[in-house]
Known about the structure:
The protein has one helix and ten strands, in the order E-E-E-H-E-E-E-E-E-E-E. It has one helix at residues 26-29, and strands at residues 4-7, 10-13, 18-24, 34-39, 46-51, 57-59, 67-72, 77-82, 91-97, 109-114. The protein has a six-stranded mixed sheet with strand order 2-10-9-4-5-6, with no helix packed on it.
Amino acid sequence: xxxxxxxxxxxxxxxxxxxxxxxxxxxxxxxxxxxxxxxxxxxxxxxxxxxxxxxxxxxxxxxxxxxxxxxxxxxxxxxxxxxxxxxxxxxxxxxxxxxxxxxxxxxxxxxxxxx
Length: 115
């Protein structure tokens, strides 16, 4: 079964940190670039970070230097370490392949950053 399950979100004060996790079905994970995306209320979903199968990463300008994406190929998992969080990082966060596959979107995990 094709599945992506995100976890690790929560409420944190500005300046704090969170680590998001995504468990992926092996069929999705092993040959795909994986990405983290987010969608804030009233805004379009945007890519936050992506990582290739060999660990090459790319970040949105808004999170460079604060977020780190990583993957564990043995566990079919991808992570997003978020530091120095800002209120504008508040959003639902999702993992997916890159480019995103429409039928892979999961429930996401909510991140709320208070000022």
